[in-house]
Write a structure and sequence with these properties.
The chain is an alpha/beta fold and 315 residues long. The chain has one domain (3-314): Spore Coat Polysaccharide Biosynthesis Protein SpsA, Chain A (Alpha-Beta Complex). It has 10 helices and 14 strands. Strands 1, 2, 3, 4, 5, 6, 7, 8, 9 and 11 form a 10-stranded mixed sheet that branches. Helix 2 (26-36) crosses helix 6 and helix 7 (179-192) packs parallel to helix 10 (257-275).
């Protein structure tokens, strides 16, 4: 698509499909949910998040007990080695270990794998995904994301966006989060999918979708799931199938630069696969990095997750 045409489409979409969480009062959403006769599942993928997952679960559980807006609250434990599962269960979530769900289908490490496996253990017509490492957030993350889905049956995917708080390590808090978004995801969209540049945070960990959409899409097993779902939804159903909601402010723990580089490589694999311009993606990709050990710079290699699960509807 021509860049100027893409920019025009993105600007028009931004006006039509952007709202704020305050636009979706809980009582009105609960009434709309009853009229539509749908159910809602909230899924929290987690790996070694014992310090924060309990508070996230407790906050969302209040929507179950006080409003009936949420019918099911599930934590998908992705190979945790701490007390994540126990903490989440005590807080009120149904907990599944991703590798133990449908073991006959095999297992992969990664966030995408956990969310794909969640399709096999949840039942909600509407799915809301919330990260487990949140430190500054609120249950309005869930209500805001549900709003466009309950208000417009044409909307299939809702992306959250927010001011991302970043702990500078010196006691300072800034809004300079989202490094992989700004350095990788946004340039990729600007180059190859300019019509999607109106999406404020394409990699947001808080988003919602209709079950039939999620069951119809291939799912990268790692960090690339958010970008893949966004691109695939717009390609298969049009840009108006996507909406976004301003959720205010979000705080969470941050990754080291070497780990962010691995995430960036996953996004590039997702983009290359969907562009299809360079042929098939290699079955094995290594990210080579340098670290200083014992006074010397040493190279190390890390595998980049390139596998994708097939649409769950094909099982």
């Amino acid at each position: 698509m021509d860049v100027n045409e893409g920019d025009r489409i993105a600007a028009e979409w931004l006006d039509r499909r952007t709202s704020r969480w305050q636009d979706w009062p809980v009582a009105e959403l609960a009434a709309a949910k009853r009229r539509a006769g749908v159910t809602v599942s909230v899924v929290i993928p987690a790996r070694n998040e014992e310090r924060t997952v309990g508070r996230v679960v407790t906050g969302i559980a209040s929507l179950m007990t006080e409003t009936g807006l949420v019918d099911e609250l599930v934590v998908m434990d992705s190979d945790s080695t701490d007390q994540t599962s126990a903490v989440a269960a005590r807080a009120g979530a149904a907990v599944y270990r991703a590798r133990e769900v449908a073991p006959e289908l095999g297992t992969f490490p990664g966030k995408g794998e956990a969310l794909w496996k969640s399709l096999l253990v949840t039942s909600g017509d509407l799915l809301v995904f919330v990260d487990a490492d949140l430190t500054h957030w609120g249950p309005h993350f869930v209500t805001g994301l549900l709003g466009p889905l309950l208000a417009n049956e044409r909307v299939l995917l809702v992306k959250g966006f927010y001011e991302r708080l970043y702990d500078g390590g010196d006691g300072s808090i800034t809004a300079d989060g989202g490094r992989v978004t700004e350095l990788v995801a946004r340039p990729l969209l600007s180059l190859w999918w300019p019509e999607l540049t109106g999406v404020a945070q394409p990699l947001a960990g808080e988003w919602a979708a209709r079950r039939e959409l999620m069951r119809s899409l291939p799912i990268p097993v790692g960090y690339g799931i958010e970008l893949a779902v966004l691109i695939d939804t717009a390609r298969e159903h049009g840009l108006d199938a996507v909406a976004q909601v301003d959720l205010g402010r979000r705080g969470h723990k941050h990754q080291a630069s070497h780990d962010l580089a691995l995430m960036a490589a996953e996004l590039m694999v997702v983009a290359e696969r969907r562009r299809g311009a360079a042929g098939p993606v290699p079955a094995r990709v290594e990210l080579r990095q340098f670290v200083r050990e014992d006074g010397e710079m040493r190279q190390r290699s890390r595998p980049v997750p390139v596998d994708e699960r097939p649409p769950a509807s094909s099982l």
